[in-house]
Design brief:
Elements lengths: L1 E4 L8 H11 L3 E5 L5 H13 L3 E4 L9 H5 L5 E3 L5 E2 L12 H21 L5 H6 L8 E2 L2 H6 L11 H7 L15 H15 L4 H11 E7 L2 E4 H14 L2 E6 L5 E5 L2 E14 L4 E14 L5 E9 L2
Parallel strand pairs: 1-2, 2-3, 3-4, 7-13
Antiparallel strand pairs: 5-6, 7-8, 9-11, 10-11, 11-12, 12-13
Length: 306
Amino acid sequence: MLVVSGEFGANEPVNAFSDAVASSGARVILFNSPGGNVGSAIRLGRMIRAAGMDTLQLRQLQCASACSLAFLGGVHRIAEPGSIGVHRAFLKPADGMSTQEAETRVQLGTAAIISYVIEMGVDPKLIELASSYDKHDIRYLSASEMADLRVTNAAANQSPADTFQASPRPVPAPAPDARQQPESVAIAFVKDLIEHHGDNDDFALAQAQASYAPTVDYYGKLTNLSSIIQDKRTYYRRWPERGYNVRNDSITVACANDRCMVSGVYDWVVRSPSIHKQEKGAANFSYTILIGPYPKIVAETGDVQQ
């Protein structure tokens, strides 16, 4: 077992970690860190995953802020309740940036975090939860929250210390289930995207940034990602309060090769308190998803029901 201690610096030497793993022969990583640089934590998490290592977190040690991202790199992840702390990422704009440049930087940073979380097999709702808490008000996760969000992937009744001491790789990999079938993956992906349109603007735009391919057949026109994000940003500013609910019984899905088309109907309500205006209704949607380790939208169309 190898303990990673201290704060993640902006330019952590990755070779030092590789050397420590090689010399110790460790298969399990334990953390004692208050967090630090998000980019360094993500790099470490990817190294842990590439090395096929597991992660363990005990409550008497600390793993908060960016450390929680590094923890997600474990192939098998066990954590005691209250041992993993999360909060909204603090992404500081560079000096001299315009307001729009600063907003774009924050959204791109959040999108990178969401993409990493999805890459690690964790529910991106983790980032939505974290976004509700300031860095001075860290939210420590319960056992049920960690299991539901797939922060942990071991049985709830297993003792972390006993489990890893007994065997370096004791937790079986999750068995394939319906969620891993292309149709189910595509449906869950689209529902999550639509219903996240109702989140705060930064999170909703970051979710979109992480979900669309670089070029998309967007309502019949080939459109690049930056234009799609600008279109959604304009809409969100026009309607700062939004709510969406997909009708489960309306969903249809058809998959062929590496693509799935998901269609259906969702109910929506939007409000603009500043002009005392509200609209609501139902809309048809259709998304074509490129299925892979990181699904991407390659086509979108739809219309408001009259």
